């Protein structure tokens, strides 16, 4: 979500709808942008590539650094835990130092910690360095959308579409780049990220102008926002949903590699990269093209409950077919299709559910949901080691059921969320973008 002070409650939506209808963003609006916007879009692409970049090299890190799969998966936990905590305070930090400085500080953190990770000698070192990487990414992704809208010369919807395009490309190409560089060494994806983010840092430093002083934000504004029952319901729903999301993302490379080996195929980092390229591409496509259609046709809450139910089925089937290479590859990609719908629909619901400033609501919601992402890898590995390799998927299914229960119980706080949802074109694209900021 943008860090603007625009409210998104139901009382203000009708007033916004009329003027926006005449300014529907076009592809020309999206790609006819100043150099500063392209610089931010490039950095955003690399930033989102970093989410899936590590996936293909987890087995290699585990074997070459003499670490258990559980230890290797903690690369996600440290990254997401620090991201979660930082998210509660990014809107305050941005209001103190400004958008450009926040972007540059975030990028600098990513460059330094990604470069150091490429030189690490143990998995514990990488786990610690990924925490610093998570802090940088939190600062960058929480500010980039506001920056790209502020730097555009035309309609904001066009800039948002460009940013969303960068996000989709990054989500899809991250695992592929990780797999490609991972065939050289597990260190190469970290070094490659540092170089690309360094280019992004220089581009933004040179091309992006300093903005006017932002409106002040309280350092505890995001924490106070969780007193809102609607936001709290959606944040708790997102916690358990993200446990399912990151079980699929962080744990699956290990049973995938084992299933390939059992089939007599040497999968390696490149094979895992291609599978999660399909996952990221599926997620990007449904978040952009399918989720908006579903939310308009059947409403936000029905879309959420239906998608959570289908994801639960996918996880249950994975508990049975995780030893089949064909089965697990197919189910990972199907999971990506459903996750794209879920991300967008959940964030659209957050936008509709409260009258809180978008930046504050986004910080609160993102901080809580990333905690779920941090929990999943920390639990999935030890659970698989103590029981069976299918148990983490069963845990994910249970977590998704809990997410549905929380949403169903808290639905009374969401009664004002319209069943047939009509965000303006720019708001809809903004929701898609924010929803995919994993």
Automatic annotation (TrEMBL):
Annotated compartments: Cell membrane
InterPro entries registered for this protein in UniProt: MFS, MFS_dom, MFS_trans_sf, Tet-R_TetA/multi-R_MdtG-like, YfmO-like
Record-level Gene Ontology MF annotations: transmembrane transporter activity
Signal peptide as annotated in the record: none
PROSITE patterns: MFS (PS50850)
Coiled-coil regions listed in the entry: none
Alphabetic keyword roster: Membrane, Transmembrane, Transmembrane helix
Membrane topology recorded in Swiss-Prot or TrEMBL: Multi-pass membrane protein
Domain of life: Bacteria
Pfam families documented for this protein: MFS_1
Transmembrane segments: 36-54, 74-95, 102-121, 133-153, 160-182, 188-208, 229-251, 271-291, 298-321, 327-346, 367-384, 390-409
Keyword match Transmembrane helix: yes
A cellular-component GO term for this protein: plasma membrane
Ranges of residues in domain Major facilitator superfamily (MFS) profile: 36-414
Record's keyword annotation contains Disulfide bond: no
Primary localization class, coarse: membrane
Name of the protein this chain belongs to: Putative MFS family arabinose efflux permease
């Amino acid at each position: 979500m943008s860090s603007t002070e625009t409210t998104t409650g139901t009382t203000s939506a009708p007033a916004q709808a009329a003027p926006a209808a005449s300014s529907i963003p076009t592809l020309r609006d999206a790609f006819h942008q100043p150099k500063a916007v392209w610089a931010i879009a490039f950095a955003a692409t690399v930033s989102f590539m970093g989410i899936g970049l590590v996936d293909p090299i987890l087995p290699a890190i585990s074997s070459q650094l003499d670490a258990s799969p559980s230890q290797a998966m903690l690369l996600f936990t440290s990254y997401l835990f620090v991201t979660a905590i930082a998210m509660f305070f990014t809107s305050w930090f941005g209001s103190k130092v400004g958008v450009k400085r926040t972007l540059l500080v975030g990028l600098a953190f990513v460059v330094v910690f990604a470069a150091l990770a490429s030189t690490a000698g143990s998995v514990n070192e990488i786990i610690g360095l990924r925490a610093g990487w998570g802090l940088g990414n939190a600062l960058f992704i929480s500010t980039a959308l506001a920056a790209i809208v502020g730097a555009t010369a035309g309609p904001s919807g066009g800039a948002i579409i460009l940013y969303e395009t960068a996000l989709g490309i990054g989500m899809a190409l991250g695992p592929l780049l990780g797999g490609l560089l991972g065939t050289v060494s597990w260190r190469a994806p970290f070094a490659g990220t540092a170089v690309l983010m360094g280019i992004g840092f220089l581009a933004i430093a040179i091309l992006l102008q300093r903005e006017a002083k932002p409106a002040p934000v309280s350092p505890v504004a995001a924490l106070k926002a969780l007193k809102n029952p609607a936001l709290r319901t959606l944040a708790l729903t997102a916690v358990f949903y993200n446990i399912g999301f990151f079980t699929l993302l962080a744990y699956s490379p290990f049973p995938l590699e084992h299933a390939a080996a059992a089939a007599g195929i040497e999968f390696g980092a490149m094979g895992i990269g291609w599978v999660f390229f399909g996952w990221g591409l599926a997620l990007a496509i449904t978040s952009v093209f399918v989720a908006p259609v579903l939310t308009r046709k059947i409403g936000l809450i029905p879309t959420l409950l239906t998608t959570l139910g289908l994801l639960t089925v996918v996880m249950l089937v994975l508990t049975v077919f995780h030893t089949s290479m064909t089965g697990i590859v197919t189910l990972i990609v199907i999971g990506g299709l459903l996750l794209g719908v879920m991300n967008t629909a959940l964030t659209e619901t957050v936008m509709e559910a409260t009258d809180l400033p978008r930046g504050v609501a986004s910080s609160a919601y993102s901080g809580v949901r990333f905690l779920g992402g941090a929990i999943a890898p920390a639990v999935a590995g030890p659970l698989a080691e103590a029981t069976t390799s299918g148990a983490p998927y069963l845990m994910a299914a249970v977590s998704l059921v809990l997410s549905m229960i929380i949403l169903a119980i808290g639905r009374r706080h969401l009664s004002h969320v319209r069943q047939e949802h009509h965000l303006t074109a720019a708001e809809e694209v903004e929701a898609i973008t924010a929803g995919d900021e994993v």
